[in-house]
Design brief:
Elements (H helix, E strand, L loop, with lengths): L35 H6 L24 H4 L6 E9 L2 H11 L6 H17 L11 E7 L1 H8 L12 H7 L5 H4 L21 E7 L2 H17 L2 E10 L21 E2 L12 E2 L2 E7 L26 E10 L1 H18 L8 H9 L44 H5 L25 E2 L2 E3 L13 E8 L2 H13 L22 E9 L2 E9 L3 E11 L2 H8 L7 E3 L4 E2 L4 E3 L3 E5 L5 E5 L4 E4 L8 E4 L5 E4 L5 E4 L9 E5 L3 E6 L2 E6 L11
Parallel strand pairs: 5-7
Antiparallel strand pairs: 1-3, 1-4, 2-3, 6-7, 8-11, 8-14, 9-11, 10-11, 12-13, 15-24, 16-21, 17-18, 18-19, 19-20, 21-22, 22-23, 24-25, 25-26
């Protein structure tokens, strides 16, 4: 086994795509959880990021939890998987936890100040800065337990609501968690009613983290709650710092987020200073913001300001994976598809898509090049000029999890725009667990604690896993098939393609699976307003239509007793659960879509963007559009109803 151990100074975050580690930070002094907010507030306005506020409002958001967009980015982390026994005590515990939760504005300010100090020290971490971050997410069972009602008024097949309700164990076959990775062998997550909450603690100082863990154990015991499982994680030591257990620098390729990351003024579509990072609408990660194509979220009001949280414990057989690299390299040399002097790193880099230090194979195929400090290593990475996979194989991990601009629907066809994949991106916050592998040392449990945030479990995390990473026929319509992801995918033959006088020649390799799932959970990271409501025993499960959302023919938002439907004839209709019309906009034959604007107006528009119908509620920025399980659709602001259907007055609002 060969892989390079080194410390690489980076400007941004890094990948082996679905195996992801947050950019860590080392510090020698600590602050307590109670002073986290004070430490964050001490950051200078400049440290909060240029353009913070009106231009980048998400950077100053004090209602969302900080690990979603900003990222805790600590060297040490611990997840406590909690089960509640007493609803009243659990609510009280949650209320007491609220002041300790780390918000986006706090984490953003600290991270910006830390990065600024690191730049002043020429890439050396400031040893005088350290904090303890705290976050919480809740499973479907946990939300129901605290609210004492079903979190969803209705669950439609194929939706994220269904995936969240069912849980990761019930969807194991879809995710490739079969055989040794099947739920019956998991350490956590096999019982959908077991884990209620995931408490995340992250710190620079392991001693301070240990004290916090003990404190939380004590408070949970007082709340008649039990910790079902404890998962510790820590960045690897020495030259492997920032790498995952197979030896590759991680968390390189993260999406940019509109409203949080500053755009490049020349393109407007990429992050400033990172030409290889596309800006993705915030609604793909944080429920309540605009999504790609202005699609409706179709989720309850309690989800606004939060994000779905995937937690997976992935055990890595490091020795086995590298032994496979040696065996496959011998096959490639025998067939003439690999240079005679190629090292195991040469093939391993092609299996991952990057060299161990993070540089893409696409930009330096012959040998590894160490990125210079501040360099965006993905600046030129797109795959549009490597559609055959001759440089970066089509099965490479970073192509299987994010094909960028190199995806074709069939050989010979032009590639799809990279923007087509914006709705498939996820934010990864993983961290290794266990000691780094050392040949000859005693066996030990090691691997990656995979964590991701996304607004759509089905369209993002599950799509990547089932349709891309674990799918041997992706990219599609190729013969032979490319094979599955050789880092995290199931066992599969794989086609290693290289040029030949007649076109492309494929050498078939046999990849086995050396990453085993040992536990998995679907949870949700709520906003602080939702958590406060839960602590008071309340949960608003009205379906919310967020500002900027467009409803198109066929879209249906189901609130159980009623559903809002934009039919193929162009009419916006409110129906009861038996399909009877309670109200309609009377725009059949003229309506093309319906939009809820940022100033509180609901309109049905014609194909040429004229108004066919209006709620006549413009001028109410911050108004909310809710479809309530009690049987009506309303636009409300500060407790006042601006528009309602049906209410006996709806006809007065349907004038064209």
């Amino acid at each position: 086994m060969q892989f390079t151990r080194r410390t690489v100074v980076r400007a941004g975050a890094g990948t082996a795509a679905a195996l992801a580690v947050g950019t860590p930070a080392i510090a020698s002094t600590t602050t307590t959880a109670s002073t986290t907010a004070t430490a964050a507030a001490a950051a200078t306005p400049r440290a909060a990021g240029a353009g913070a506020g009106a231009e980048l409002p998400l950077r100053t958001d004090a209602t969302t939890q900080g690990d979603i967009l900003a990222g805790f980015r600590k060297d040490h982390a611990c997840l406590l998987l909690v089960h509640f026994h007493d609803t009243r005590k659990a609510r009280r515990w949650l209320g007491q936890l609220l002041p300790e939760l780390s918000t986006t504005d706090q984490v953003t300010r600290f991270n910006a100040e830390f990065s600024a100090a690191r730049r002043l020290r020429r890439g050396v971490d400031p040893t005088s800065m350290a904090v303890l971050w705290t976050g919480i997410s809740l499973t479907h069972a946990g939300l129901g337990f605290l609210a004492q009602k079903d979190p969803f008024p209705a669950v439609s097949p194929g939706t994220t609501a269904e995936a969240f309700r069912d849980g990761a164990a019930a969807r194991s076959a879809l995710l490739g968690d079969t055989g040794p990775s099947a739920p019956d062998s998991w350490l956590f997550g096999s019982d959908p009613d077991g884990v209620h909450a995931v408490l995340t603690l992250a710190a620079d100082d392991p001693k301070r983290l240990a004290v916090a863990i003990d404190d939380h154990h004590e408070s949970l015991e007082d709340a008649d709650a039990e910790v079902l499982f404890r998962q510790d994680g820590a960045t690897l030591p020495g030259g492997l710092r920032g790498h995952e257990q197979f030896g590759f620098l991680d968390a390189i390729s993260q999406p940019g987020v509109r409203g949080f990351d500053a755009p490049d003024p020349e393109t407007g579509t990429t992050v400033s200073g990172k030409p290889g990072t596309r800006l993705v609408p915030a609604g793909e990660f944080l429920v309540g913001h605009e999504r790609v194509g202005q699609r409706p979220a179709g989720l309850p009001a309690w989800a606004t300001g939060g994000s779905f949280h995937v937690v997976r414990r992935l055990a890595q057989d490091v020795a086995g994976w590298w032994k496979q690299v040696d065996e496959c390299l011998a096959e490639l040399k025998k067939s003439g598809a690999a240079p005679a002097d190629a090292s195991p790193n040469w093939l391993a880099a092609r299996m991952v898509g990057r060299w161990p230090g993070g540089a893409p194979v696409a930009t330096c195929p012959a040998a590894e090049r160490i990125p210079v400090p501040g360099e965006d290593v993905d600046g030129a990475l797109d795959f549009h000029d490597d559609l055959q996979g001759w440089t970066t194989p089509l099965f490479a991990h970073i192509r299987k999890t994010n094909p960028r601009g190199g995806l074709t629907t069939a050989p010979g066809r032009p590639p799809l725009p990279a923007a087509n994949n914006d709705s498939r991106r996820i934010i990864r916050r993983g961290i290794p667990f266990g000691p780094a592998y050392r040949a000859g040392a005693a066996s030990a449990q090691r691997g990656l604690l995979f964590i991701s945030h996304q607004a759509d479990l089905v369209g993002q995390f599950e799509f990547i896993a089932s349709r891309w990473s674990n799918n041997a026929d992706f990219p599609p319509a190729r013969h032979p098939r490319p094979g599955t992801d050789p880092v995290i995918g199931p066992a599969s033959p794989a086609a290693f393609e290289c040029p030949s006088p007649s076109g492309s020649r494929a050498t078939t390799l046999a990849f086995e699976r050396y990453v085993r799932t040992e536990g998995a959970l679907y949870a949700f990271t709520p906003s602080l307003p939702t958590l406060r409501a839960l602590a008071a025993g309340k949960l608003d499960n009205s379906i919310e239509v967020h500002p900027g959302t467009v409803l198109r023919p066929g879209d249906t938002l189901d609130a159980g007793a009623v559903r809002l439907h934009f039919d193929t004839g162009g009419d916006l209709i409110l129906q009861d659960d038996e399909g009877r019309t309670l109200w309609n906009a009377d725009t059949s034959g003229s309506g093309a879509d319906a939009v809820f604007s940022g100033d509180g107006e609901l309109t049905v528009r014609t194909a040429d963007a004229r108004t066919a119908w209006s709620s006549k509620t413009a001028g109410h920025k911050g108004a909310r559009f809710l479809i309530r399980p009690s049987g009506e659709a309303v636009i409300v602001q500060n407790g006042h109803t601006l528009w309602q259907a049906p209410d006996g007055k709806a006809s007065a609002h349907t004038a064209r």
